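haha ok so turns out i had the wrong file open the whole time. this is the CORRECT one, sorry everyone. sequence first:
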Amino acid sequence: QVQLVESGGALVQPGGSLRLSCAASVNIAHVFAMGWYRQAPGKQRELVASITTNGIENYAASAKGRFTISRDNAKNTVYLQMNSLKPEDTALYFCNKRVPITAYWGQGTQVTVSS
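then structure:
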């Protein structure tokens, strides 16, 4: 059973930074391309960033230049460094495989950007 546990969300002012973490219960090093997703109230869940098993990154237009996804395969953890945060980044953030598996969705971590 794969479990993904997100953490690191917080209330932050516009322009601030946060680093989210996603800890996997299994070895993801050579198996899973991973993604960070977010869902704002009243909106569909969207893919924000993804990273392949060999470290190739991709970003949504809204995240490009501000967010950085990375992975530490030794720790089975994926990170999302978020800089220059905007109020529109407010959402519940989740991690999952790049092609998400329903059973893998965790509780997410709340990011709120507000002054």
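Residues 38 and 93 are 4 Å apart (CA to CA).
again sry for the mixup
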